[in-house]
Amino acid sequence: MTATLTHTRPVRRQRWDRRLQWVAVHSLGVALGIMFTLPVVFVLLTAVMASDQAMSSSLWPTQWRFDNFVKVFERAPMLDYLVNSFTYSLLATAGILLSAIPAAYALSKIRWRGQNVFFMLTVAAMMLPPQVVTVPLYDLWVRLGLTGTLVPLIAPYFLFDAFSVFLLRQFFLTIPRDYIEAAKIDGCSEFQAMVRVLVPMAKPGIAATMMFCFLYTWNDYFGPLLYTGENRDSWPLSLALASFRGMHHVEWNLTMAATAVVMAPAIVLFVFAQKSFVRGITFTGVKG
Amino acid sequence: MRTTITAWRLRRGMTLVSAASVLLLTACSAAAGGSGDGDGPAAAPNKDDKISLVVYSKFTNREYPVVSAGLNRLKAKFPNIEIKHEGSQDDDKLTQSIRGGNPPDVAISFFTDNLGAWCSNGSFVDLKPYIDRDKVDLNVIPEAVRSYTEFRGKRCAMPMLADVYGFFYNKDMFAAAGLSAPPKNTTELFDHAKRLTQLNPDGSIRVAGFLPTMPFYNNQAQIWAPNWDARWLGPDGKSNLAASAEWKEMFTFQKKLIDFYGHDRLAKFKAGLGDEYSEDHAFHRGKIAMMFDGEYRTAFLKEQAPNVKYGTASPPVSDSKPNRYGGAFTTGTIIAIPKGAKNPGAAWELIKQMSLDTDTLVELGNGLKNVPSTMAALRDPRLEVDENYRPFLTMFDGGKLLPNPTTPIGDAHLKAVNDFAERWQAGREPDLEAGLRKVDAQINDELAQKGGGR
Amino acid sequence: MTATVPRTRVNAAARPARKVPRRDRRRRLTVLAFMAPAVLGFVVFFGYPLLATVYYSFTRYDLVNEPEWIGLGNYIRMFTSEPLVAVAAWNTLWLVVVLTLTRVLFALGVALVIARLKSGVGLIRTLCYLPALAPPAAATLAFVFMFNPEFGPVNRFLRLLGIDGGLWFNDPAMSKPALTLLVLWGSGELMIIILAALLDVPVSQYEAAELDGAGPIRRFRHVTLPSISPVLLFGVVNSIIFALQFFTQAIVAGGVASGSADVAGNTKYIGSPENSTLTYPVWLYVQGFRYFNMGYAAAMAVLLFVVSFAFTAVLVHQLRRASSAEENA
């Protein structure tokens, strides 16, 4: 921390300072790592406790009840919830592949009037609190008789998902247009250029976008609460979890076991695709 | 060649746009609702009709199969009817399903909180044409029960079973504290609570004689209010708690108990208690010695905590209203046909059976430990009555029951009072009357919002 | 970060010198085909509902009976007789100010530490980011459990230190700070964005500043801050929007901590304790989809739209500047 005065100090002192700084920064880093991990550790430890221990003042399980994870599935139709969650997340992710890639292509690789306007509208849509438009949308889905199903949640992804369009456009911009032009000189149509040239080159970006879409829908609570709240058969995990304790009269240990189950897929996904994730996140930041 | 492909693609795009706009137009002109909205009653089904009836209720775990069995008794009359009983459906989900146009054929609600809303906006079908057609005599149902199942003279629900909220006390703890009889008035309640409370060495609460925190378990304003003779609406149909001596007395008493324990200490104690319907309920675990609760608790205690020795009685009443003793808060499970139900005719047959058939009611009463809502079932010798259940039947027959007011605002008035109670017990509402005026303003605002000529 | 974005402009020479009308038309058709779903989606899911919300805000509508025009009635109710909308707006304002400040500063602080790490960067970065992936409903449940005043590990730990821990989610004064901690725990995304920006600052600039005798604080102010300020602005706007639509954590925490049997199902307990977790979007949801005052909810939505649009405009403006800078580069 005294780096300014280094040139007036003996070299040994300087080395000592650097070492001290190294220790300070690294212990801070380790402390942060532990801090961020502790809640998950608590969840996992409580998940394998006996029920009366979960509400007592001990941190370490006295008996390891791994069957709690089985019990969770017995007490509640967790499997149904799991299927609903996967239906919502996988279909939505498939939806953006069909809808967002062409839109992002048109926004980044073809020049047309209104391009900028639509891009700004996309950003505005991305930033819009979802509660603003819910009244007419709910009304619309009611009139179509589709509330209580997953359709109102999934359908929009097959037309327009602002965040995916935004993110893909940012990715596509990094791919030089020369490749597209070359493909077109070889006789490709825009569609062929997109499918054969751009998509293979943008795979990491597309993968990151898909993962964000999967995660967002997996974690979504407001949408399912609004549209599927009335019909338990359509509940995804996130919604079921919040009502889990009250509805199924379960104890804290089982609640934490269920919490761990809900957290797991996201974490597994991350472990397998950490690089894409980090790349994707940095792209959501505004380029300065 | 390529041009034609793109043009085709474009046309397809256009078709999509126009298809969607057509969809929107038709969507906007289509009214929500279904076949249940006709003027006359829907015909009863033929004996062998194959019908699938969807029933929503809030029953879970232990109670769910009992109710399913009761519902399936309809098969004796209509052997080909299939009943799809969906438990765990609370009022909010039911409302959403009706507004969403996907209602069940039969709706069962635990409470009458939302009856006014459902009746006034037409969410429930008016049952009068059915009652007239089948010449049903409603006088077999006690008067108080009839009053809480209709709204401004409109009968859009039938009672299924009734709940009466009495008083539970732990006999072992009473004996240990040298107490013999349950309290009859608030002075005794306060005194008992003090004597039954035990503290840990660090000063935290080990056992609370009586937990006064509101809202928690059945410490709900509507359940307490009858014991103080406190009424919700004035003669003008508006909320006027601020002018009511009874409400003030009730909250003053509650605050006295809160102060005896200390608000923060109570809050910590409360946070460590188990859920209302779980095995960890504080009364099951011996963490509270007395409480207000419904008659159905006897069944929970029997199954989840058979070793707890307890007694039941009429709830203690305000010192200034000794003649209220023997009265209690009553509400009940209601059963109705939602607007848009697909098989209203068959639904009515099921409702008749669930609300009027003595055999079904006795079976449900025994299984759920709820009070049957017809006189015939109430007096039926097959109804199992033990010493802990009898006080509830006595109260039910005693004529001093007070139900919730049926208003079109659902449970908004309960939220308003709960909000106030939280602030009041934390000491953040120094002026009782001013605080209650705010509650009145909130309730009356919501009443006005719903009033609007409808 | 500019450095990571390669130029995308093509040479003017690569473009055809003369516009071929036929080709031009074909390109237009292609654009139309590519954009049709997105435009349709935008119209159906954003354009139409935005306009319809404004219409509904002038009506009384309960989804059962047809909407009834009541003029400014809902707005008058909002500003005069309905008491909880002000409480809800205050809670959201609190979150906008406190969440935004703490989230940006915390993410910056953590990113600064990680940027200085020489070994174990990957592991620490992963650990700090992982909580951001946890579903908010699950994370909230975990936090309500951890902060349980009676048996939660946080208060037990504080007790070891001789501190009497608070009531957290059961105390109206502590519930929003507890929610803030929950958000900070999951702020990994912003952290990574800031970290990337930090690592993009050219080392040569630091070296130059160090040669000029600038201390760490001055180097931070004069080198780091200017280079990452666009990302920080993004973080601020993003956090404000996040706070404006804060819903899941609030509604779940209020329900679970109240100890009610129906966690998120029971309207009576939403906002517990003492409406301190009743955020503006939560109250909008209750008014619209629990009390079915759809017209009133629409009026609340219009107000929310106006406020959030103001902040969005800032971001859009910045994006515009960035893309025009790109154009001129």
TrEMBL record, chain A:
It is found in: Cell membrane. It comes from the Bacteria. It is a multi-pass membrane protein. Pfam families: BPD_transp_1. Residues 82-273 form the ABC transmembrane type-1 domain. One of its GO terms (biological process) is transmembrane transport. InterPro entries: MetI-like, MetI-like_sf. The chain crosses the membrane at residues 20-50, 86-105, 117-138, 150-172, 193-218, 252-273. Its main location: membrane. GO terms for cellular component: plasma membrane. Keywords: Cell membrane, Membrane, Transmembrane, Transmembrane helix, Transport. Belongs to the binding-protein-dependent transport system permease family. This is Carbohydrate ABC transporter membrane protein 2 (CUT1 family). It comes from Herbihabitans rhizosphaerae.
UniProtKB/TrEMBL annotation, chain B:
Gene3D superfamilies: Periplasmic binding protein-like II. Pfam families: SBP_bac_8. InterPro entries: Bact_solute-bd_prot1 (IPR050490), SBP (IPR006059). Keywords: Signal, Transport. GO terms for cellular component: cell envelope. It is found in: Cell envelope. Its main location: other. Residues 1-32 form the signal peptide. Coiled coil: none annotated. SUPFAM superfamilies: Periplasmic binding protein-like II (SSF53850). Belongs to the bacterial solute-binding protein 1 family. Part of a binding-protein-dependent transport system for a sugar. This is Probable sugar-binding periplasmic protein. It comes from Herbihabitans rhizosphaerae. The lineage of its organism: Bacteria, Bacillati, Actinomycetota, Actinomycetes, Pseudonocardiales.
UniProtKB/TrEMBL annotation, chain C:
It is found in: Cell membrane. InterPro entries: ABC_transporter_permease, MetI-like, MetI-like_sf. PROSITE patterns: ABC_TM1. GO terms for cellular component: plasma membrane. Residues 89-315 form the ABC transmembrane type-1 domain. Residues 1-21 are annotated as: Disordered. Signal peptide: none annotated. One of its GO terms (biological process) is transmembrane transport. It is a multi-pass membrane protein. The chain crosses the membrane at residues 29-51, 93-115, 127-147, 178-199, 228-247, 294-316. Keywords: Cell membrane, Membrane, Transmembrane, Transmembrane helix, Transport. The keyword Transport applies. Belongs to the binding-protein-dependent transport system permease family. This is Carbohydrate ABC transporter membrane protein 1 (CUT1 family). It comes from Herbihabitans rhizosphaerae.
